[in-house]
Amino acid sequence: MSSLTASNAWKALQNHYQQIQNSSMREAFNHDTQRHSKYAVQLNDILFDYSKNRINDQTMPLLRDLAHYAELPAKIEAMFTGVAINTTEKRAVLHTALRNRGNQPIYVDGQDVMPDVNAVLEKMRHFCHAVRSGEWTGYTGKKITNVVNIGIGGSGLGPKMVSMTLTPYSSDTLKVHYVSNVDQTNIIEELKGLSPETTLFIVASKLFSTQETMINANSARRWFLDSAQDTSAIAKHFVAISTHSENVAKFGIDTDNMFEFWDWVGGRYSLWSAVGLSIALYIGMDNFEELLQGAYEADLHFRNTPLEKNIPVIMGLLGVWYNNFFDARSYVLLPYDQSMRYFADYFQQGDMESNGKSVDLNGDKVDYSTGQIVWGQPGTNGQHAFFQLMHQGTQLVPCDFLAAANSHYHLPEHHDVLISNFLAQPEALMRGKTVEEVKQSLTAEQQHDVELVASKVFEGNKPSNSFLFEKMTPKTLGTLLAFYEHKIFVQGVIWNINSFDQMGVELGKILANAILPELKNQDVIQSHDCSTNALINAYKKLRQS
Ligand SMILES: O=P(O)(O)OC[C@H]1O[C@H](O)[C@H](O)[C@@H](O)[C@@H]1O
């Protein structure tokens, strides 16, 4: 038994779970009209309401005991101060330094990282100004009109999600495109209609060796040179974002056109670094810095607020509560905002790559469940797709609802309807609908149809958090993203795992590299298990060239 599950704090939560597992949130709300104010926290314009959770007055203190058992406050401090908490890779974890708008020194190996952080921000500012103003031109003297970010995982998902969310802040004359998949469909479709004369490629890769990114970057270069016919023109159309200048030079991008970041920035936490260049080009550097400011304010909140009012801590502890005591295996992110359509995709990497681990910091196999499965899509679309399971299925799926009180656009009717749904769904999930309530809405004959009545009952008691904010601004987005990042960290600390490596992505890559040469010839392959052999041989038969 691990020391976590043997701890008094864990056992106290198990006992508490036994006591309250069947208690009803609907009744709790009926008895306590102060429940919302008891379980809500506000930061700036963001209201976080966690009152629709399966908790009572004892739950959060018991969860906080667990946080103290795991030494959460000290671990938060260790992260912010540059301790090498990525223990397998022996690295600091300092995405917070990238948005340290207070500019206090932060030391890694005795050296303050802030001058380098600020220098790259300055370089980004100059570059964005040059490109957006038209000062920076393509090889035929034309202004850049399209930016194509080539990068995968942390070097693609974050910039894409943020850019799409903040489209209302974008320039009318500069479009951004994202290419990540090695499936050629991605790059071919994104390049359709673009002109090499006015297209700028950003090749973003922490190590600049990721297979998908390098293949896409090579195809982009060929597409460009087919028109430009002159390798000296590459300098005006290709920039690199990386920690690895040697690999950038090897690829053929002038390191003057390289924006640097550092190994203490995890890929999935890198949108705040130069990896955010496509965002800054799209929405302007001032708005990019507003995004950083929002995250900085969340960082200050996370670092300095007592656990009981600390939004990411509460989010993380509730996640542990459902994952480890209610056996909830997933949670769903439901932004009622079409612009946030990649939010769940982004945190799939953020959460599942961080906390999908089964050994603890001592190298021992854990005897409790860790990373949760994250999924979701914007409301109201999800309501007409998967909400059925959330309301009446057998799985408990905790939900996060997010919405802005104001849209950037002004069509009549839409926004109140959107928000009425954002408000109604958590209410329905919490309240449910009893047999008596069902019968009231049926005819006398229908009331005797046992199956019909049963099918219309909603058990309710389904937990959710709600975030309501004034408007989706760069700053608000920055704050929300940092909340979720820190939530992931909190859970990793409780589970005693390293949230900052990702060894699990390696094996498949190695095996793919072994298979690739086997696809290059006509030989019948027999070197794998019979299933893999058969699939390889079937592919070789089916492919047309
Ligand atoms: O930025 P890169 O070095 O190209 O890495 C891109 C991505 O690939 C890896 O396989 C990791 O799973 C991700 O964490 C990373 O974000």
Automatic annotation (TrEMBL):
Classification via SUPFAM superfamilies: SIS domain
Pfam families given in the database record: PGI (PF00342)
UniProt xrefs under Gene3D superfamilies: 1.10.1390.10, Glucose-6-phosphate isomerase like protein, domain 1
Family statement drawn from the similarity comment of this UniProt entry: Belongs to the GPI family.
Record's protein name: Glucose-6-phosphate isomerase
Classification of source organism: Bacteria, Pseudomonadati, Pseudomonadota, Gammaproteobacteria, Methylococcales
Main function: Catalyzes the reversible isomerization of glucose-6-phosphate to fructose-6-phosphate.
Molecular function terms from GO: carbohydrate derivative binding; glucose-6-phosphate isomerase activity; monosaccharide binding
Annotated compartments: Cytoplasm
Key word Isomerase present: yes
Native source species: Crenothrix polyspora
